[in-house]
From TrEMBL:
Pfam families: FAD-oxidase_C (PF02913), FAD_binding_4 (PF01565). GO terms for molecular function: catalytic activity; FAD binding. Keywords: FAD, Flavoprotein. This is FAD-binding protein. InterPro entries: FAD-bd_oxidored_4_C, FAD-bd_PCMH, FAD-bd_PCMH-like_sf, FAD-bd_PCMH_sub1, FAD-bd_PCMH_sub2, FAD-linked_Oxase-like_C, FAD-oxidored/transferase_4, Oxid_FAD_bind_N. SUPFAM superfamilies: FAD-binding/transporter-associated domain-like (SSF56176), FAD-linked oxidases, C-terminal domain (SSF55103). Belongs to the FAD-binding oxidoreductase/transferase type 4 family. Its cofactor is FAD. PROSITE patterns: FAD_PCMH. GO terms for biological process: respiratory electron transport chain.
Length: 468
């Protein structure tokens, strides 16, 4: 491989071909600290032309490529395996915001742009890029697109796929496909854009994107509602949609144990209710009219929910600081879980109407199979996405409980399938869920996916071992 690495140094300069264990370490460890891979080198190109040249070199020498953005994924999709044969191709230096077209409501960006910086650039032009994730300060838009990320605003704006109009992609042969078209309508054959979004770098490397922008809302109002059950949360969702329509931009379900865990691990965060409740919903309204309009909509809907005994109590934020405080409760749930110890995570989606029944059915199955296990259930109820995480019983070692991971996953995923759901809602498949995908996808679907992979990447060098 010395000739290959020398070719990479010639293309990038030695400073951007990382080969020592110390230099490569941040690129080889997954976000959750569960896996450390091995790589031949980490390559850090600064342009799409350099990416294409590197891919051609990899194809020539049959070197596998693991594309990587911010490396914030949760399914081992952006880290190499332990063989040491692959290179990590980091897009972190491709971070230009190429163009903002306010009249067309689009922004063209490099794949390595940090999500929060894209949000800020849109805001500076009086626009909104609505994708919002807990990792937005470090994740990149290329990674968001490769995993078709969701986030807290999917209910109103859709997943990342719905927020992208065009792509620039380097193919496994090192060609550059320029699909950076800011068109809402382009009915000229197969939609290649949608093929690459969600493919987790297994079909090509996204190097640029045209993103949709929206008007900045005049006001956003946040509230936290308390209720007894997921059934009541579902009733609240229907009521809020009936009263508020498209103004409802966020609807997050959190169980009692979620907020108790946050209170335990982050005692400085305020707790809005003196007494505990079975379930909580964090909801957000955005209005393009005025703050008064948003407040009136929310007060009317909350009043109806209280009158109908759908909710037991509610707190409405009256300032930006209070709104941020309420959102911190939701955003600190994964952080509280991490501080409390290891757990078995599930990122699942279900028909919204069946979520209460799924929880009521699956929770007792887990309790029966793994007595006293703790179910930390939260997520985006408005779009049917639950983070259905299972923590060990009190006093049981986390590593010992993780030995049950395969059995826990099978129980949860079997239940998901019975309810017509998906084992991955917004995190992707990566290497972590690859075997589960083979178990739950139909033979026809798997054959079609393999055919696409073989046609576009016949050498099999693009992110091998991921998805398929």
């Amino acid at each position: 491989m010395s000739a290959f690495l020398q070719q990479c140094r010639h293309l990038l300069g030695s400073d951007h071909v990382l080969e020592t264990a110390q230099d490569m370490a941040p690129y080889l460890n997954d976000w959750r600290g569960r896996h450390t891979g091995s790589a031949l080198a980490v390559l850090r190109p600064a342009s799409v032309e350099q990416v294409a040249a590197l891919v051609r070199a990899c194809a020539e020498h049959a070197v596998p490529i693991v594309p990587q953005g911010g490396n914030t994924g949760l399914v081992l999709g952006s880290v190499p395996d332990s063989s040491g044969r692959a290179v990590v191709l980091s897009l972190g230096r491709l971070k230009r915001i190429r163009k903002i077209d306010v009249a067309n409501r689009t922004m063209t960006v490099d794949a390595g742009c940090i999500l929060a910086e894209i949000q800020q650039a849109a805001a500076a032009e009086g626009c909104l890029f609505p994708l919002s994730l807990a990792s937005e300060g470090s994740c990149t838009i290329g990674g968001n697109l490769s995993s078709n990320a969701g986030g807290t605003a999917v209910l109103r704006y859709g997943n990342t796929r719905e927020l992208c109009l065009g792509l620039e992609v380097v193919t496994p042969q090192g060609d550059i496909w320029d699909g950076l078209r800011g068109l809402r309508k382009d009915n000229t054959g197969y939609d290649l854009r949608d093929l690459y979004i969600g493919a987790e770098g297994t079909l090509g490397i996204i190097t640029g994107a045209v993103l949709k922008l929206y008007p900045q809302p005049q006001a956003s109002i946040t509230a936290l509602a308390a209720m007894d059950s997921p059934e009541q949360a579902l009733k609240l969702l229907k009521l809020m949609q009936d009263y508020c329509g498209a103004s409802l931009t966020g609807f997050e379900l959190m169980s009692r144990i979620c907020l108790a865990l946050v209170a335990q691990q982050f005692p400085a965060l305020p707790q809005p209710f003196a007494a505990g409740h079975g379930q909580y919903v964090l909801l957000e309204l955005s209005s393009n009219e005025s703050e008064q309009h948003a407040v009136a909509l929310l007060e009317r809907a909350i009043g109806a929910a209280l009158d109908g005994a759908i909710i037991s109590d509610a707190v409405v934020a009256t300032s930006v600081a209070q709104s941020q405080s309420l959102w911190q409760l939701r955003e600190h749930i994964p952080l509280a879980q991490a501080k409390a110890g290891k757990n078995i995570k599930h990122d699942i989606s279900l028909p919204v109407s069946r979520i209460p029944e799924f929880i009521a059915t699956t929770a007792p199955l887990l309790e029966q199979a793994f007595p006293a296990c703790q179910l930390v259930c939260f997520g985006h109820l408005g779009d049917g996405n639950l983070h259905f995480n299972v923590a060990p019983p009190e006093g049981v070692g986390h590593d010992a409980f993780l030995a049950n991971q395969a059995a826990v996953n099978r129980l949860v995923h079997d239940s998901v399938q019975r309810f017509g759901g998906s084992i991955s809602a917004e995190h992707g498949i990566g290497a972590l869920k690859r075997d589960d995908l083979a178990h739950y996808k139909s033979p026809v679907e798997l054959a079609l996916m393999r055919s696409i992979k073989a046609a576009l990447d016949p050498q099999g060098i693009m992110n091998p071992g991921k998805i398929l």
